[in-house]
Known about the structure:
Layout: H1 2-15, H2 21-39, H3 52-67, E1 71-73, E2 77-87, E3 91-100, E4 104-106, E5 112-114, E6 121-130, E7 133-141, E8 145-147
Antiparallel strand pairs: 1-4, 2-3, 3-6, 4-5, 6-7, 7-8
Amino acid sequence: MDALMSLLWLLAGWLGGADDAECLLLGGLDVLRTEAFVAGEVDRLSDVYADERAARADADVLRSYRERGLRLGGMVLVRDSCRVTERSRHRVTLDVVDHLGPTWVQSADCRRRDLPRDRPTRRTVVLERVGDVWRVAAVGSGERGLQR
């Protein structure tokens, strides 16, 4: 199932305007992020982010959900566009527009509630080479607002 989900995400990234290989790479990292969220495992974010600082926002959300006895399911991130704005050998900056698609949360008593879908949001995503793999080093609002 995980392999099928990964293939679908990569295909969606390709169909969703991922002209640059780095956008497909981001799609793969998005799959790993989704798997961490659905599993509720903060430790799995290390497969996505370059360091704990870059993972902080997602880790805080995951911990908050766990503390409230909630579990995400069916998390879907829809990418509207992606393009490289800067590229060096060890760092790539992407201009990404995406939004949360159909996603739901399940409570400890097994009640399911759909989360509201959001509007497309522009983000700057910096990918950084960590050893021989790429990870998300920073995410920010718009093309200039990076949070590290």
